[in-house]
Amino acid sequence: MALGVIAVPAASSQQRGHTPKTSELDPQIVAAVKDVSPARVKATIEKLVSFYNRSTLSAADATSIAKGRGIGAAREWIRSEFERYSKDCDGCLKVEMQSFPVSPPARRIPRPTEIANVVATLQGTDPANAGRIYIVSGHYDSRNSDNDNVTDPAPGANDDASGTAVSLECARVLSKHKFPATIIFMAVAGEEQGLYGSAHYAETAKAAQLDIEGVLNNDIVGGNRTPGDKMQQPQWVRVFSEGLPAAATPDEIKLIRATGMEDDSPSRQLARYIREIAQQYVPGFEPKLVSRPDRYLRGGDHMSFNEQRFAAVRFTEYREDYNHQHQTPRIEKGIEYGDLLKFVDFAYVANVARLNAANLASLASAPAPPANVRLATRNLENDSTLTWSASPGGLADKYEVLWRPTTDTDWPPQNVEAVGNVTLATLKRSKDNVVLAVRAVDAKGHRSVAVVPLPER
Ligand SMILES: [Zn+2]
After folding, report:
1. Closest by alpha carbon to 364, among 213, 216, 239?
2. 87 alpha carbon – ligand 1 mean position (Å)
3. 286 CA to middle of ligand 1, Å?
């Protein structure tokens, strides 16, 4: 053993590396992942497309809802789906419509409009952990070539009926199980108009001091299949995460610069966590981490949460076809335009749902991350001493210290030191050469997201 941990008994330092065997997997998470159904995902996306045009500006009056046309009908249907899942679990989901008015001169809102998020909450079963919230989100509004157009079709099968279907499918499969922490399933609107729904939700949550510990935003996860295209990678999904936190203060940015922590935001740790859980529960389907907030010229609902200091990432298919997004369906010079059902790969969307469900279940089963993680930097020394406060909520059975070279972007699985149920660990390894982190582990092996320390001087 080249690596010694001074502060803990020698026995626990033997447990190095984490290569989970099938026997170590949580049977509840395995069951939830297995329960995800491509047929259910397909039925959801087909239904959402049937509303013809789900623009945030489209019809929401009673007659249109009765006819199954427009965004009003779409949100009533999403609410009824959540309620249906809830009936099957003795009312375990609290289903709400969070609605709010927006009026001109708001950007891209030419007339007074009611915007509504449909929200279903699976309350955590442990009172000491139920305040911890994990969110999965997709946007149910759609658009065609003209963002104000409410009369031509705007099927939005990929953008973003696919992400909405992921949120709904996660609600369906996870509502059959119980978790210590809370999971919220969400379908938001106003995305195409400028992230209105998610911004309202995140601002309200911040004002209410909700402890949102992670947001999984799914937008364009249809795995576009253009006939003849050989570039799509149906075994990959991109996971975008911010490096410098959008809400960092000037002092925080100064500290990030001084310590070289540009690659270690809470959102980036969440992305790494997703990758690790994927290897355990959805082998063969790989999250490709992208170290930037979003694609060029684009944004998404995760950014609304980042703006309020919450960790949030975006899932998007590997290769997008811009002829099949934000386009009025038509054929021009032999090219078919439109965000149509026939370009969606339902098996792919189901894999994205499996990945989301596994991560939500793992996060909501795991202990809270350790708090107040600090790295001693008072003296010049070659050892590294970390301290932390016990994981809030009492689920932690032990802790692990991770490290990686500063030029690596992932925590290598072999660079893990089990340090026991302690709040201080000293590693014979220089903090100057590596990035260190601590995570909490419960008795069954559920792990929290890793937390990088702040320097303590
Ligand atoms: Zn979108």
Report:
1. 213
2. 30
3. 21
C-alpha 334 to ligand 1 mean position (Å): 26
* Torsions phi, psi for 10 (to 5 deg): -60, -35
Q: Is the pLDDT of residue 139 over 80?
A: yes
Q: What is the pTM of this model?
A: 0.94
> Binning pLDDT at 50, 70 and 90, where does residue 7 land?
very low
- Using the mean position of ligand 1's atoms as its centre, give its distance from the Cα of residue 33 in Å: 25
User: From CA 443, how far away is CA 446, in angstroms rounded?
Assistant: 8
Q: Is the dihedral of CA 331, 337, 341, 345 positive or negative?
A: positive
User: For residue 133, is pLDDT > 90?
Assistant: yes
Reported as type and span, the H/E element at residue 430 is none
High-pLDDT (> 70) share of the chain, %: 95
Chain Cα centroid distance, residue 198: 13
- Say how many Å lie between the CA of residue 161 and the centre of ligand 1: 9
Q: 160 C-alpha to center of ligand 1: Å? A: 5
d(CA 376, CA 380): 10
What's the CA gap between 385 and 375, in Å, rounded?
A: 6
* Segment 84-104, tens digit of pLDDT: 999 999 999 999 999 999 999
DSSP H helix total and E strand total for the chain: 11, 17
Q: In this structure, how many other beta carbons lie within 10 angstroms of the beta carbon of residue 7?
A: 16
Tokens matching residue 292: 């930037």
Q: Summarize the confidence of residues 34-55 as an average pLDDT.
A: 98
Q: 69: closest CA among 51, 45, 48? A: 51
386 CA to centre of ligand 1 in angstroms: 41
pLDDT band at 19 (very low <50, low <70, confident <90, very high): low
Distance 408 CA to ligand 1 centre (A): 31
